Amino acid sequence: MIKIIKINDTLNVSFDYDADIVSKVKTIPGRKYNPNSKSWDMPLQAIHKLNELFDNLDIANDVDQDYKAPKYDFKKELESINYKSLKIFAEWALKNLPDYFYEVAASSTGKYHPQYTQGEGGLVRHTIAAVRIAEELFRNETIQNFNDTEKDIIRVSLMLHDGVKHGLDGSQYTVATHPLEVVKYLEDVYFEVPEETLPDEVIEVMECDLWEDIASCIKSHMGQWNTDYKTGEEILPRPQNEMQKFTHLCDYLASRKILEVNFNVEG
Prior knowledge:
Elements: E1 2-7, E2 10-14, H1 19-25, E3 32-34, E4 39-43, H2 46-53, E5 57-59, H3 75-79, H4 84-96, H5 122-138, H6 148-160, H7 178-192, H8 200-206, H9 209-219, H10 242-254
Parallel strand pairs: 1-5
Antiparallel strand pairs: 1-2, 2-4, 3-4
Helix pairs in contact: 4-6, 4-8, 5-6, 5-10, 6-9, 6-10, 9-10
């Protein structure tokens, strides 16, 4: 029997060890194993996948089996983009990201990110924070002198930089090559759909240097942390130009444990 209870805003799933059950559980995005209790924490929306995978569920009464995680609309962040084509492109790209992007925590282990990025929706909060940090730094002409288009490229890059952080299958852990996966994922979506279904602005961005600049900022956003943790081999490009370095800086600051972001302050 698989027991499901709700603890705060998280599902807790427990069962006697069974290799087949474990293999199925590992297909659920946002899962996290608790070795002490030998149970799994999952986002609230995982109830749908659990019902799909298993029949023998003992579900607590306070678990909402119709739960749907609200998707953040990035309205404020999109409004900060000045160039219309980039704004429409960013909106299109965000809508096409995997659903788990809007659901999971920023850190699969909780070791490397601040408190506000933990729990359901944490990855989105991390993304918002990175964009807000960029906006704060854009006001400081002592440290940067980007033109309006460059600022928009950075904004879009930050909105999308972790869009496929857990890979295509929603792995439990961060995929080390996720900056490359984001770019490939969006390019695949673009080329797989009929051209007539795409907004003209999306085609414009994807077919010119704008996408190349965005892609290079995304690919290099990990900065010096660009190696395989097992082999030490470099698997990601390092930032080369000022836009790439700035994108990395904003992501870096948004992931520091000593920095907690007040989202209630108007930027």
